[in-house]
Amino acid sequence: MKRVWIYQSNRFLKVEEVYKAEQILQAFVEQWTAHGNQLAGSFEIRHRLFIFLIVDEEKAMVTGCSIDKSVHLLKEIEQALGITLFDRLQLAYRAGGRNDIIQLASQEEFRNLLETGALDPEKLIVFNNTLTAAEDIDTKWEVPIQDSWHARVFL
């Protein structure tokens, strides 16, 4: 099974920032280990907003220390780019369906937009950054709000 951690930036990255983040991530996954065993790590940056850190646990299991190393790496990227990657109170969404632009809002702003009718739950697509199985990314990450944990909290 491939395990994933999804980190969302507090803003969209510029092209040169994506390149810099990719360089840092590439250097990290090439030397990422758990108890001396090389991890089969990879990464992806999507929509200039989300960083996916992925490990194939069939080759080597992640450990607490290896997870700590990855958190340290993400904090390094935050400092290098002047961004925040650990703000779980900020939500990304597409108001008008899958082809609409991605927008960001705090949970309070998001709730307000729903309550005032500015967002239509029937068209609303959200990003479920709590996924842990990489196999779920294509089907359970970018989903209608009704198919996500967001429904329990906001609808």
Give descriptors for this structure.
4-stranded antiparallel beta sheet; 3-stranded antiparallel beta sheet; 155 residues; alpha+beta
Characterize the structure shown:
The chain is α+β, with helices and mostly antiparallel strands and 155 residues long. Helices cover 35% and strands 26% of the residues. It has helices at residues 15-31, 64-81, 107-115, 137-140, 149-154, and strands spanning 2-8, 33-34, 37-38, 41-46, 50-56, 90-94, 102-106, 125-127, 142-144. A 4-stranded antiparallel β-sheet has the order 7-6-8-9. β6 and β7 (102-106) form a beta hairpin. The chain is globular. The model has no long low-confidence stretch (mean pLDDT 92).
Order of helices and strands: EHEEEEHEEHEHEH
Helix content range: 25-40%
Largest sheet: 4 strands, antiparallel
Strand order of the largest sheet: 7-6-8-9
The termini sit apart by 32 Å
Low-confidence stretches: none
Q: What would the principal axes of the Cα set say about the shape?
A: globular
Strand proportion, as a percent range, falls in 25-35%
Number of strands: 9
Instruction: Write down the Rg.
Output: 16 Å
Specify the structural class.
alpha+beta
Layout: helices, strands, pairs:
Elements: E1 2-8, H1 15-31, E2 33-34, E3 37-38, E4 41-46, E5 50-56, H2 64-81, E6 90-94, E7 102-106, H3 107-115, E8 125-127, H4 137-140, E9 142-144, H5 149-154
Helix pairs in contact: 1-2
Quick structural gist:
By secondary structure, this protein is an alpha+beta fold.
